Amino acid sequence: MAEILLEVKNLKKYFKAGSQIQLFKKPFYEKYYLHAVDDVSFSIEKGTTLGLVGESGCGKTTVGRTILRLYEADGGQILYEGKDIAHIPISSDKTYTKKIQMVFQDPYASLDPRSTIADIIGEGIEVHKLCKTKNEREERICELLEMVGLNREHRNRFPHEFSGGQRQRVGIARALSVNPEFIVCDEAISALDVSIQAQIINLLMRLQKEMGLTYLFIAHDLSMVRHISDQTAVMYLGTIVEIGPTEEVYQHPSHPYTKGLLASVPLPDPDYEANRTVRGMKGEISSPINPKPGCRFADRCEFATEKCRAEMPKLHEIGNGHKVACHLAGETK
Predict the structure, then answer these.
(1) 36 and 59 in contact (C-beta within 8 Å)?
(2) Per-residue pLDDT in tens (0 to 9) along the chain, 333 residues
(3) What separation, in Å, do the N-terminal and C-terminal C-alpha atoms of the chain show?
(4) Would you tell me which of 51, 170, 228, 242 could form a disulfide with 232, CB atoms 3.0–4.6 Å apart?
(5) Cross-strand partners of 75
(6) How far is Cα 133 from Cα 125, in angstroms, rounded to an integer?
(7) At what angle do helices 134-147 and 117-127 cross, to 10 degrees?
(8) What is the model's pLDDT at position 331?
């Protein structure tokens, strides 16, 4: 069996969204919480990629940031190589900041404009004391630049002198500088031109093959996720509604939301696009603040029953490692 590198169990992350005074009820005020991540579970095998897809605001980025402990988890476990790291203080143990790195969405905002490329890439090397001499550090920085398709001469330049694709390559080099095992790619290509996106995807896949990296690839571009991922998880309003081998999920979607998401991908046919409707999806996305009981997708699902509105469905396997959280799985088309 393949080795599980990361396992997330019942992960929760809530954000306080204010309170409302209640004059005639107790307690005097009621707190409101945004359920950004609500009971999320998945695992990633070593050397593979899990694609995490869903609409904007569904909680994908919060999952990634909580795994990196940029956010403190409000519940659940984050098991890295079998050890729960959810509540280990970063200041007291830098082991996992070295093993787990992140490539951010915005290549313009994620690089310090006042620092040279050498300083940006070399910061992690210095923090973790990976090079003994200045010359060794410089050589390592040049090696990383060439690894991501840039030149040695680029090390003395500043971020504003580069294009978006080049800046994202710098971000990847920075993540690789501490020899990580696991990288969270948070919408790493969404801010780039379409012509550059494929180059970055191919770079990530080459680096994974050469270095044995494991990825959590967060995106909303379904075609790119299908290209790079071994497993795909579909999120909706803080919960995972479907997960499984990528081709299984794409060819045999079982949850109404997954079906609607895949059916909403535009086709290069204006006449077809003007007349088609996406079955299984209607209305607007519900509020994630103090959500109602039952399936989060029930208000938008044309197949929803009273059971769907009253009881939250659990992820259950329907074959070939394919899991879905739907009371009606297999009954809808």
Answers:
(1) yes
(2) 679 999 999 999 999 887 665 555 555 556 788 999 999 999 999 999 999 999 888 999 999 999 999 999 999 999 999 999 988 876 667 788 889 999 998 888 999 999 999 999 999 999 899 999 999 999 999 999 999 999 999 999 999 999 999 999 999 999 999 999 999 999 998 888 888 999 999 999 999 999 999 999 999 888 899 999 999 999 999 999 999 999 999 999 999 999 988 888 777 778 776 776 666 577 778 888 888 889 999 988 888 899 999 999 999 999 889 999 999 886 665
(3) 34
(4) 51
(5) 12
(6) 11
(7) 120
(8) 65
Residue 59 token pair: 């909680």
Residue 33: name the closest of 311, 299, 295, 288 by CA. Answer: 288
Rounded CA-CA distance 87/63 in Å is 15
CA distance 244 to 74: 26
Neighbours of 97 (CB within 10 A): 17
Task: Give the Cα separation of 293 and 310 in Å (integer).
Answer: 6
**Separation CA 263–CA 45 (nearest Å):** 29
Both tokens assigned to 258: 């997954």
Closest C-alpha to 69, from 104, 102, 35: 102
Residues 5 and 25: their CA atoms lie apart, in Å, by 48
Alpha helices in the chain (DSSP H): 60-67, 95-99, 117-127, 134-147, 164-176, 194-211, 222-228, 246-251, 256-263, 270-275, 306-310
Only one residue has tokens 């910061």, namely 123
Q: Which two tokens stand for residue 218?
A: 């967060």
Q: Which two tokens stand for residue 169?
A: 């390559």
CA distance 206 to 232: 20
pTM above 0.85, yes or no: yes
What distance in Å separates the CA atoms of residue 224 and residue 235, rounded to the nearest whole number? 16
Tokens matching residue 67? 């795994």
Per-residue pLDDT tens digits for 188-242: 988 888 889 999 999 999 999 999 999 999 998 888 999 999 999 999 999 999 9
Handedness of CA 124, 127, 132, 133 (dihedral sign): positive
- Write down the residue that tokens 């079998």 correspond to: 82
